[in-house]
Predict the structure.
Amino acid sequence: SAVISQKPSRDICQRGTSLTIQCQVDSQVTMMFWYRQQPGQSLTLIATANQGSEATYESGFVIDKFPISRPNLTFSTLTVSNMSPEDSSIYLCSVSRYLSGANVLTFGAGSRLTVL
Amino acid sequence: DAKTTQPTSMDCAEGRAANLPCNHSTISGNEYVYWYRQIHSQGPQYIIHGLKNNETNEMASLIITEDRKSSTLILPHATLRDTAVYYCIVRGISGAGSYQLTFGKGTKLSVIP
C-alpha cells in the first residue's frame, strides 16, 4: 500500500494565523482525502482533494476556511485559515486504493494542531 | 450509508482471541463491511473488509452472518500492541462518495497482560 508522509507532525499556533499541512504520497493516487479528528472524537471527512480542479467539500466545511491544493497525483496541501482554538485537532491525509473488489483507505500519521 | 452499532469498550486477555461485534441491520446488498483500527496518536489502519463471505488475512478474520446484519472481527491471538479503537464501517462500492468512509465512535479494545 501507499506510504504517506505528512508535515508538520505537530504544531502550536496562535489564534488568527494560518497553517499549511503537506501530504506526500510515494506513488501516484487518484483519490486523496483530508480528515479532521477533534479531541476525543472520531474522524470527520473535510474534503476530497481533486487533481487539477477545486476540492469537493463536505457539509460544514468551506474553501475559505480550509483551502486545499492538489497540484499533482502525489501531493496535496490543506491550509487551516484564521485559526481559533476550536480548530485544535489532528488533521489526516488519506488515499484510496482498490483491493479485493472494494476501495480501502490508507492514512498518514496525522498532523496534530494546537491553537492557543 | 448503513449505520453500525458497536460496543463502546471491550477487554481481552493477552494471547486470547479478541472478538469484536458489529451490528449493521440496515446494510444493503452492495455495501461492504470494513474494519479499521486506530492506535493512540496514529492514523487509522485498514484491517479487513468483506461482502458476504468470511474473510481472513494476516491481521484478522471477518465473520459475516448469513443475513449480513452483523459481523465479528476476530484477532486470533491478541497482543498488547492490538490495544486500539476498532471501527466497523459499512459502505457501498460505487457511486458518488463511494471512496469516502464515515467513522463512528468504534470499540476501544484494551488487551490486558
